[in-house]
Design a protein that fits this description.
Elements: H1 3-58, H2 64-71, E1 81-93, H3 96-101, H4 105-125, E2 129-134, E3 137-142, H5 150-178, E4 187-202, E5 207-212, H6 214-225, E6 230-234, H7 235-238, E7 251-253, E8 262-268
Parallel strand pairs: 4-6
Antiparallel strand pairs: 1-3, 1-4, 2-3, 4-5, 6-8, 7-8
Helix pairs in contact: 4-5
Length: 271
C-alpha cells in the first residue's frame, strides 16, 4: 500500500469516526428530548391532579359553573358585576323553626345536610347556579354564568322545582322516619324572572358571587306567600313556561317591600 492509499484510508476512517460521533450526538439529543417530553407529561399530569383536587374542594363552596370559570381564568376576578336576565328560585322548609327546636342538634345537622345535598343534585342536573343556603332556605338562579336563553332558563327552573316537590312527595315518609323528624317534610317555592345585577360583590379581601336586585326580592317574597307543597311563579316567569296548563288561575297578591300588586300563578301538588 503506497502513501496515497494510506492517506485515503485515513480520511475514510476519520469520516467514519465523525459520522459515528454525529450519530451518537443525535441519539443523545433525541434521548434528552424524549426525557424532557416525558418529564413535561409527568408535570402536566401532576398539575392536572392538583387542579382536580382544587376544583373538587372549591366546588364545595362555589357553584360548579362558577368554579370552572375561575379555574380557567375566565373573569371572576375582582369586584365586577353585570346586568343580566335571570330566573330566580327560593325555597324553604315549612315550619323549619319548630322542627329544629324539637330535634337533637346532631340529627338536625345530618338531616339538613341530606336535604341540601338532594336539592343541590337536582339544581345541578337542571343547570342551575346555587347561590346560597341560608339555614333551610335555598337560593338558585338560572341565566348566569351560562344561559340557554330566557325561556329555556325559566323552564329549567320550573322543572327543577317540580322535580324537588316530586322527590319529597315520593320520599316524605322515609325521610321522616330516617331522621326522626317531628313532622313530615314539606317545602314551598317562589320563582320570578327579570333583570338582575349578578357578579362579584364585596371587597378585595372577600368576594361573593351572587345576584341582587328587585327580582331577587320578589322571588323571596313569592316563596313566603306560597302554599305548602306548592310553587308560586310571577307572571314574568309564567309567560316563559311552556306548560301553562299545570297552573291555577291568576292571583294578585301584595308582598312586603313591593309597592304594587304582583300577578302570580300557582302549581299545587295533587292531594
Amino acid at each position: 500500500m503506497n502513501e496515497d492509499e494510506i492517506k485515503q484510508l485515513q480520511r475514510q476512517v476519520s469520516k467514519l469516526q465523525l459520522e459515528a460521533k454525529l450519530r451518537k450526538s443525535v441519539a443523545n439529543e433525541l434521548e434528552r428530548q424524549k426525557n424532557l417530553v416525558q418529564q413535561a407529561k409527568e408535570e402536566a399530569e401532576e398539575q392536572r391532579a392538583i387542579l382536580e383536587v382544587a376544583s373538587d374542594r372549591l366546588s364545595k363552596y362555589l357553584s360548579p359553573q362558577i368554579c370552572d370559570q375561575i379555574l380557567r381564568g375566565e373573569s371572576f376576578s375582582g369586584i365586577q358585576n353585570a346586568r343580566k336576565y335571570l330566573t330566580v328560585f327560593f325555597s324553604d322548609i315549612v315550619n323549619f323553626t319548630a322542627i329544629s327546636e324539637k330535634m337533637d342538634p346532631d340529627e338536625l345537622g345530618s338531616f339538613l345536610n341530606y336535604y341540601l345535598t338532594k336539592m343541590s343534585e337536582l339544581a345541578l342536573h337542571y343547570g342551575g347556579t346555587i347561590d346560597k343556603f341560608i339555614g333551610d332556605s335555598v337560593m338558585i338562579f338560572f341565566g348566569d354564568p351560562i344561559s340557554e336563553g330566557a325561556q329555556k332558563d325559566a323552564n329549567n327552573c320550573f322543572n327543577m322545582a317540580l322535580a324537588m316537590q316530586e322527590f319529597l312527595a315520593s320520599n316524605r315518609i322515609a325521610i321522616q322516619q330516617k331522621y326522626n323528624l317531628p313532622e313530615p317534610l314539606h317545602i314551598r317555592v317562589g320563582i320570578h324572572s327579570g333583570n338582575c345585577n349578578v357578579g362579584n360583590f364585596g371587597s378585595e379581601q372577600r368576594l361573593e358571587y351572587t345576584a341582587i336586585g328587585r327580582v331577587v326580592n320578589i322571588a323571596a317574597r313569592l316563596e313566603q306567600a306560597c302554599g305548602v307543597d306548592s310553587i308560586l311563579c310571577s307572571q314574568d316567569t309564567h309567560e316563559l313556561i311552556d306548560n301553562k296548563e299545570v297552573f291555577s288561575e291568576e292571583t294578585k297578591i301584595f308582598a312586603k317591600g313591593v309597592t304594587e300588586e304582583i300577578s302570580t300563578y300557582s302549581w299545587n301538588a295533587v292531594s
